[in-house]
Amino acid sequence: xxxxxxxxxxxxxxxxxxxxxxxxxxxxxxxxxxxxxxxxxxxxxxxxxxxxxxxxxxxxxxxxxxxxxxxxxxxxxxxxxxxxxxxxxxxxxxxxxxxxxxxxxxxxxxxxxxxxxxxxxxxxxxxxxxxxxxxxxxxxxxxxxxxxxxxxxxxxxxxxxxxxxxxxxxxxxxxxxxxxxxxxxxxxxxxxxxxxxxxxxxxxxxx
Length: 207
Fold this sequence. Notes:
CATH architecture of the largest domain: 3-Layer(aba) Sandwich
Helix content: 10-25%
CATH topology of the largest domain: Rossmann fold
Distance between the termini: 42 Å
Shape: globular
Number of domains: 2
CATH class of the largest domain: Alpha Beta
Strand content: 25-35%
Order of helices and strands: EHEEEEHEHEHEHEEE
Radius of gyration: 17 Å
Number of strands: 11
Strand order of the largest sheet: 2-1-6-7
């Protein structure tokens, strides 16, 4: 089935896209919802929270007109800040099939790591995780440290942390973050990526 991937740049949307391809789907496009033209807000169209659903449906209908039959998302549970079954309702209204490879699955983060994906923590809810977690690589040590805390969902499903995927089997090249800065806004610690390079696989040298 020809599908579009709802993409945020984080681990869940990336891994769901990967799993959908493994299931035989043809991912033809990525849909990235943005409130600021330079920063991904939810998942490259501009959108504000009050117009998100309208803009999301408009984008899906445009893709449906080009032959897309379904949309894949990284949802593990119902979408935060939306009613239960929100995605299914949206898909029904626009006439697309929802594809949710991660739905109600556990051990997702462990599988993500084992498959060779690499990601960096770029946002934390400060009441759950300290600023020292920003910039950490999502690897076995990270996973084990989360388990030791015992208070944080291993996949960050309560918004405890968000990630930015920099490498993995989906990609021909990798991203290396060269410079970043930590800030705090509205109870969330954020890692602002100031400088990065796209590099060939296996290259670790910096210019």
